[in-house]
Amino acid sequence: MSQEMDASLRRAINKAVKYLEEGRVVPFGGRRDVFYVISKERRHLVRVKEGRITCSCDGFKARGFCSHALAVWALLMMDERERYLEEKIRDRLAREIRRLRSTGDFRI
Ligand SMILES: [Zn+2]
């Protein structure tokens, strides 16, 4: 693996960890073979089919890997992925609700 590839992979892995930790990897309609990965500007669709993981982003098309696909791959490798997903998504929603409340645009 070239140094350039190495650096690119390292960046993608670090982003993948961030997506997972921030609850940005979300099962699509409760499925476990399609996931949304919510990046800052965009949403990417990651599919798992017959052990292969693919992503809808341009980076994946160009390099054959990306932070979104790596995030889903890491998630699928976790022993406690269901609990982890649930916890991270719940935390993310709680943060978003706090943020919305703090702007004053959101009242129940
Ligand atoms: Zn991607």
Lay out the secondary structure.
Elements: H1 3-21, E1 25-27, E2 34-38, E3 43-49, E4 52-55, H2 58-63, H3 67-77, H4 81-103
Antiparallel strand pairs: 1-2, 2-3, 3-4
The protein binds zinc ion (ZN).
Bound molecules: zinc ion
Query: Order of strands side by side in the largest beta sheet?
Result: 1-2-3-4
Individual helix count: 4
Strand tally is 4
The total domain count is 1
Structure description:
The chain has one domain (3-103). Helix content is 55%, strand content 18%. The chain has helices spanning 3-21, 58-63, 67-77, 81-103; strands spanning 25-27, 34-38, 43-49, 52-55. A 4-stranded antiparallel β-sheet has the order 1-2-3-4. A hairpin with a 2-residue loop joins strand 3 and strand 4 (52-55). The termini are far apart. The structure holds zinc ion. Zinc ion is lined by residues 44, 55, 57, 59-60, 66, 68-69.
Q: Quick recap of the structure?
A:
This protein has helices at about 5-20, 60-65, 65-75, 80-105, and strands spanning about 25, 35-40, 45-50, 50-55. With about 110 residues, it is α+β, with helices and mostly antiparallel strands. Helix 1 (about 5-20) crosses helix 3 (about 65-75).
List keywords for this structure.
single chain; alpha+beta; 4-stranded antiparallel β-sheet; 4 helices; binds zinc ion
